[in-house]
Each structure stands twice: as structure tokens, then as C-alpha cells.
Amino acid sequence: MGILLEAVKNRKKISQKAPLEVKREIVLEELRSMNVTTSRAGQPIEALGYEELKEEWVIASILWVDVENENGKWF
User: In the chain, N or C terminus with fewer CB closer than 10 Å?
Assistant: First the structure.
């Protein structure tokens, strides 16, 4: 659970009142910054809805390891 908490803390906060399309674009930017181009099902991330994008973002955040960081070199 600590890994998920740290991953979420390091990401931009999305305002609850922001329009859905704005939220979707923020999540798309985050996924692109992690070099994610397709979903786990093989669809392009641009074709996914906001809820599907959020799910992919959480999974990518959990699996993402910064190998440039001293603590991530083991991976």
C-alpha cells in the first residue's frame, strides 16, 4: 500500500470540479510521460475513456520504477 500512496503523492492533483475532458487530458499526459502508449488490453490510450485511463494510470504508477534513482537501481 505504501508504493501506491507514494505514486499518487508524486502525481499532479486533479481537481474534483474540473471538466471530465480536462481530467482525461491530464491522465493522458501522465501516461505519456511514463511512455505508456497502449492499454493492457492492447488499445491505444487515446481511445480509452476517463475511467479506463485512470485504471491504466494507477497500474502504470505501481509498476513504474525510476532506475536513475539510487533506490531503483536494483530493478
Answer: N
7 contacts 61 by C-beta, under 8 angstroms:
yes
Length of the chain: 75
Torsion sign (Cα): 63, 64, 68, 71: negative
Q: Grid coordinates in use for 34?
A: 511514463
pTM above 0.90, yes or no: no
CA–CA distance, 50 with 18 (Å, rounded to integer)? 13
Phi, psi (deg, nearest 5) at residue 12:
-60, 145
In the chain, domain spans:
2-8+17-68
Decide: 63 and 10 in contact? Cβ < 8 Å.
no
Tell me how far apart the alpha carbons of residues 21 and 75 are, in angstroms, rounded to a whole number: 35
